[in-house]
Request: fold
Amino acid sequence: GAVVSQHPSWVICKSGTSVKIECRSLDFQATTMFWYRQFPKQSLMLMATSNEGSKATYEQGVEKDKFLINHASLTLSTLTVTSAHPEDSSFYICSAREGPSVVAQHFGDGTRLSIL
Amino acid sequence: RKEVEQDPGPFNVPEGATVAFNCTYSNSASQSFFWYRQDCRKEPKLLMSVYSSGNEDGRFTAQLNRASQYISLLIRDSKLSDSATYLCVVNINTNAGKSTFGDGTTLTVKP
Reply:
């Protein structure tokens, strides 16, 4: 079945550091990927829609200069949390669809980000 | 009002019990519906799609009521391993477009 790989799975770093998270579709091409954030005991919050070869579409309230998204190929999207602070600590999850007509999403394993 | 609403629970049931979750959605133009399962500190995994005719996968049955704008998930003969958070997901478009997730319903199955 479709597999989405996310790396790293866990990051602990100091405040002010920028952190890059990779999301790869391993056995299919994903023109669209999604980035979510989930705080403890809360629901998934869509941050942005990543489109291959074009700019990402950010949800209201998500700072595009803070959360940089690059979708340079059909199998890779990256999310960079710039100058991360403790309030950015969260569980970041990406997802992808197998094709434009496939609605169900496959999720990466998630990245647990802890900013000290 | 949220676009997708679920009873957060928690639902605490004994092994072998039957439990049902409901989910309501506000946009009548919604086209695609899913149930996902999320274990603690893990990513969501697709459990099943939901079709107008209803569909069954083993102990799990999903149904859609377009007129009342709700979907349901029925779990029969609950297992300890069914303990998780169940997320209701709705899409307006069948092609592309973002999904809207409910907040999830937490199920704990006890021995």
